[in-house]
Specification:
By secondary structure, this protein is mainly beta. The protein has two domains: 11-33 and 66-230, no CATH class; 272-399, Rieske Iron-sulfur Protein, CATH 2.102.10. Helices cover 11% and strands 33% of the residues. It has seven helices and 29 strands. It has helices spanning 11-17, 38-42, 97-100, 124-130, 216-222, 287-293, 387-393, and strands at 76-78, 92-96, 109-115, 118-123, 132-137, 140-147, 152-157, 159-160, 163-164, 167-174, 177-182, 188-190, 195-198, 207-209, 211-215, 227-232, 272-278, 281-286, 295-300, 303-310, 330-335, 337-338, 341-342, 345-347, 352-354, 360-361, 367-369, 382-386, 398-399. Strands 1-10-11-12-13 form a five-stranded antiparallel β-sheet, with no helix packed on it. Strands 2-16-4-3-15 form a five-stranded mixed β-sheet. The protein starts with 10 loop residues before the first helix and ends with a strand.
């Protein structure tokens, strides 16, 4: 058992230099995000020397085709550690919910993903050290990713054109976001978008799957028969339960590690936002507003939506001991349309309520009581990010306000 997992803590200093770097789990339309144009995908920089502006080391990449890329190489930064120094988990092992509750506090954040009734929780106390988990859930090969510097937890299908890819960390960053690579072609992939930006796979797009960050308590209440990531069968361990990113997401801390661009001053750089993009319309919903209102009813590009926010999830990027960190809550985005009816939601004492029927709904978009009990809202694409990162990838984003 890994209850007494210990590893020399000197790596913390290294990881501070490196980077990947909420919540109904129902099927969503698997729309590709940020797909490069064919011209971008097919464009090749002049060879044999396309790397005059690079800021990252080359020796570890003999198989990467650097003549193919969709972003300028000067935008890619070396994160301070070499390829795979932040080790991906390739042989994940899991505990039952009952076992997990013996070592994980209810308030700790997990990245929750469900496919074909196979519900899994990936604790951020593990993901901050590994950033990538290659897994198979409900028979579907997926890559579970988390970038601490951006606070972005995303799950993708890792099959491209019938080929299952395995991912690792390059040690490089763009907009402070994790750049992954696939071991089959050694192409580089942007975690934030799921797009290949360098190498033979340039222009290919991973399918984004529904996932979100919630508290362990929320997960185990919804999925008592689920499973929780315990570690890697290879024996690779770290100082799980602690984070090397101490005070990183404090609003008073404007420092954005490994981010070279100008930060968008409309919000503090480290403000958490729920980033939603529908039909190329991007809107950021600040957690400061969500925590006050708890429910936001909105419409984007003719899509009626609701965002639920609930307290009880702590930050993995603030206190050294994650379970003792500050409460930042968790949020999820759903369609307000159910069986042809547009619902309007309001906060309740324990659950959220719809004004039309008085039914009560939980954070997973499931009606737990009332005339609509058992109904399920459709999850829309929306994820938690730190503001500076969301704005860097969505410079034209709008910001939702109470006005």
């Amino acid at each position: 058992m890994m209850k007494n997992r210990r590893w020399f803590f000197g790596l913390i200093g290294i990881l501070l230099l490196a980077a990947c770097a909420r919540v109904g789990i129902t099927p969503v339309s698997q729309t590709a995000v940020h797909t490069p144009t064919p011209e971008q995908a097919n464009a090749a920089s002049p060879c044999p020397n396309p790397l005059t502006e690079r800021q990252f080391p080359l020796p570890p990449w003999p198989r990467t085709n650097f003549c193919r890329h969709t972003v300028p190489y000067e935008e890619i930064r070396f994160g301070g550690v070499q390829r795979d120094s932040i080790p991906a988990i390739d042989t994940p092992i899991f505990d039952t919910v009952a076992q997990g509750s013996q070592w994980l506090a209810d308030v700790e954040p997990v990245l929750a993903f469900v496919w074909q009734d196979d519900a899994r929780a990936y604790p951020l106390q593990i993901l901050v050290w590994h950033e990538i988990v290659n897994d198979v859930v409900g028979g579907r090969p997926v890559v579970v990713t988390y970038c601490p510097l951006c606070d972005s937890g995303l799950v993708f299908d890792r099959t491209i054109n019938g080929q299952v890819l395995d991912f690792g960390t390059t040690g490089n960053l763009r907009n402070a976001d994790l750049i992954m690579y696939d071991r089959q072609t050694e192409s580089w992939w942007q975690q934030f978008t799921g797009t290949a930006i360098v190498g033979e796979m340039t222009g290919q797009q991973l399918t984004l799957l529904p996932a979100g960050i919630v508290s362990w308590g929320e997960f185990r209440a919804q999925f008592p028969n689920g499973r929780i990531l315990l570690g890697d069968a290879s024996g690779t361990e770290r100082e799980y339960g602690k984070t090397p990113y101490i005070n990183y997401d404090a609003l008073s801390n404007p420092r954005t590690s490994f981010f070279d661009g100008e930060t968008d001053g409309r919000l503090p750089p480290k403000m958490r936002v729920m980033g939603v993009e529908i039909d190329n319309v991007a809107i950021a919903y600040p957690y400061s507003l969500l925590s006050e209102q708890q429910v936001v009813n909105d419409t984007i590009a003719n899509q009626p939506l609701v965002i639920f926010w609930k307290s009880g999830t702590v930050s993995p990027l603030y206190r050294e001991v994650i379970a003792e960190s500050r409460d930042v809550g968790s949020a999820a985005v759903f369609s307000r349309e159910l069986d042809g009816q547009i619902l309007t939601f309001v906060p309740g004492e324990t659950y959220f309520q719809d004004a039309e029927t008085g039914s009560e709904w939980n954070l997973w978009g499931t009606a737990v009581s009332g005339p609509l009990a058992g109904s399920q809202l459709t999850r829309l694409r929306g994820h938690e990010f730190l503001w500076f990162a969301w704005a860097a990838f969505h410079p034209d984003t709008l910001i939702y306000t109470s006005n």
